[in-house]
Sequence to fold (202 residues):
Amino acid sequence: MGAKDPFVLPLSVLEEGESHRELIGTPADLDLDPEVFDPNGRVSFRPTVYKMGAKLEIRGPLVARARLKCGRCLKEFEAPVETEFRVFAEPPDSRDPRGNKEVREDDLGIVYHDGQSVDLTEDIRQVLVIEVPWHPVCRPDCQGLCPRCGADRNEEDACTCPRDRVDPRWQALMDHKAPESKTPESKASESIDSKSEDSEPE
Ligand SMILES: [Zn+2]
Ligand SMILES: [Zn+2]
Fold:
């Protein structure tokens, strides 16, 4: 790794105008929750920097990986946490009597620098915390666990428990497998009945 503060950008390396940087560190460098972000994992920020004198615009893709637990099947899984991170950096306003820290908290998106370097550590940390999904699902069609026996319904032949609430896709299959052949009319009326059952309030 090398650099102690990978998310501190020294101003001396930046040219006037546009340049490209690569800041690579770990969740540990950012003091992120080790339960969610593997401390030995990787966080990368590849910004385009626009520098005009002491003012900078810094923006680019910020990428990390989070360890999440599916809210339906309770399986742990890894998922990328990716966002476009953008800040403006400038020298602190000498007319503002407040300390840099308070100013930064008020004006999200502005980082004050000391003329030597821009410290993006805290802003990157906050953005990654916000970007972690609140209700993670391992995949959009995860079937979750059987509420009766706890079997993982994503597995084939998970269990044979009756399903109280019939998914329309299953209903179609069950209709197809119905033992006695029925006239189209009776089939239609049956599916209307089952629909009204499905729409009962939870
Ligand atoms: Zn799941
Ligand atoms: Zn079951």
In short: The longest helix spans residues 184-198. The chain has two domains: 8-131, 168-198. Confidence is low (pLDDT under 50) at residues 180-200.
